[in-house]
Amino acid sequence: MKIADRHEFRIPYMVGVYLAANAIPDLYLLTDGPDCLFFKAEFVHGAQDLHSTLLDVTGRHRVAHTLADINNVVLDREEQISALAARLAAEPDAGMVLVTAMPMASITGTQYDRIARDLSARTGKLIAEVPARSLQGDWLDGYGQVLAAVARTLPLEGAGSGNPESVAVVGPLVDRTEADRLADVREIRRILQDGLGLDVCSIWPSNSTVAELGEVARAGTVISLPYGARAARILARRLGARLVNAALPFGPAGTADFIRTVATALGRLDRAEDFLKAESLEWGDSFKRAAASLESMKFIVAADPWLAEGLVRMLQDAGVSIAAAQSTSFDPKPVCGLPTLAEVEDGVDVDMLIVPTRGIDVALRLGRPFYEFGFTSYGTHAFFDAPTLGWPGAVNVMSGIVSAGTLFSTIAGSRTWNLKRLAGSYQVVPDH
User: Fold this and answer.
1) How far is CA 432 from each of CA 13, 100, 175, 319, 353, rounded to the nearest angstrom?
2) What residues pair up with 65 in beta bridges, in sequence order?
3) Residue 416: what pLDDT?
4) Which of 153, 183, 205 is the last residue in one of the domains?
5) ω into 153 cis (within 30 of 0)
């Protein structure tokens, strides 16, 4: 028996749409579809993100839906869609309204882009369409499509400054607005400003408002991270800016790749090497001590494609072997040439798993310790600065892995603790 189904970790498109909307606090979202859409927000609000503002106790939610169902989906709903979008746009803090649809509604031929354009012209508010692609894409596509819609729609006053040292970073994964992801945003800024001496005018997204995202107009260079590649291309084209495609700065190797890529593009390689040496001196010993605790261990890893690759590289560089690695994309591809979880047997010799919430069931079935990491992380939250990116992030993550393994060993040795109790404390993301 295989330890997991090929699609065990897949997360649907609309969850990614909600994630991106969550990361822009004055962005409102209208979806043409049934009332189950409301509950999708709950997989972010209060579950993944304890600080989320998608929902509101007074009923002034940042997400709304048309209640389209099998009984009314064939009817003309343009007036209803327009009225709902106008209501959202009238909210005092609404910086932008995005309109999208579920497949059952979009196949009726409703022209959401035209409705958005007409309503935007009538109200003077920023209103745009997000493609209805929930059957073709996954959560990563949904996240990227929202950022791309904002990039196409946002007015860029004073665009085209042309100063290459004024940079915008597009595409960190801000899957919640808790202290860990906001610390990641600050770490990116620290690397570029303190390490390379660049002016970071904007990071997309970063729990910044739509107006604050407009500071991207000053950028002469757009640095594209994998989660926002489409939006980065749009912005670079609109600004006439240089586009630099960079790796996710996760783990020592990934961080070095990110820094050297940006530094090479902007002629700052000497400064980059000095910064990397300083970072290694400051953080390297702590990383090595954590790594020493994991020597000779064998891991299973599951995460989004770029984070999974970063985890595998970091662990292998630390002397750890990887039995299997799984991407949480719709069509999971091999990570670093390793077998997926659907390709290894239940009796695989493994010491620990690094998995999102859904993977905890796999860890419990195997009776192995786990470190909950990535999206989703429903049982782990951050209330203090705890970056996962850069050298500080590498030390934090390695420390978390070591601590999780130690805790499991302690719990497993207790006769009064039942590990199966853990399973009931986690929610799962729906498959549709």
Assistant:
1) 8, 16, 19, 39, 26
2) 31
3) 47
4) 153
5) no
Half-sphere exposure of 318 (CA within 13 A, CB side): 33
Question: Which region, left, alpha or beta, applies to residue 285 given φ > 0 means left and ψ of -120 to 50 means alpha?
Answer: alpha
CB 363 within 8 A of CB 36: no
Helix (H) or strand (E) holding 96: strand 96-101
Question: What single-letter amino acid sits at 411?
Answer: I
164, 221 Cβ separation under 8 angstroms: yes
Amino acid at 207: N
Q: At what angle do helices 179-190 and 390-412 cross, to 10 degrees?
A: 150
Structural domain ending residue among the three candidates 126, 153, 180: 153
How long is the chain? 432
What are the start-end ranges of the H helices in 338-382?
360-366
272 assigned to some structural domain: no
* pTM, two decimal places: 0.92
User: For residues 256 and 259, what is the distance between their CA atoms, to the nearest angstrom?
Assistant: 5
Domain span at residue 138 reads 13-153
pLDDT (mean) for 115-137: 92
Same domain, 64 and 76: yes
Tokens of 396: 């934090």
- Cα–Cα distances in angstroms (integers) from residue 294 to residues 24, 298, 314, 406, in the given order: 38, 9, 12, 11
Rounded to whole angstroms, the Cα distance separating 99 from 113 reads 8
Is residue 127 within 8 A of residue 119, CB to CB? The reply is: yes
Query: How does pLDDT run across 342-395, given as a tens digit for each residue?
Result: 888 877 889 999 999 989 988 988 889 999 999 999 999 999 999 999 999 999
Q: Are residues 300 and 193 in the same domain?
A: no
DSSP string computed for 305-319: HHHHHHHHHHHHHTT
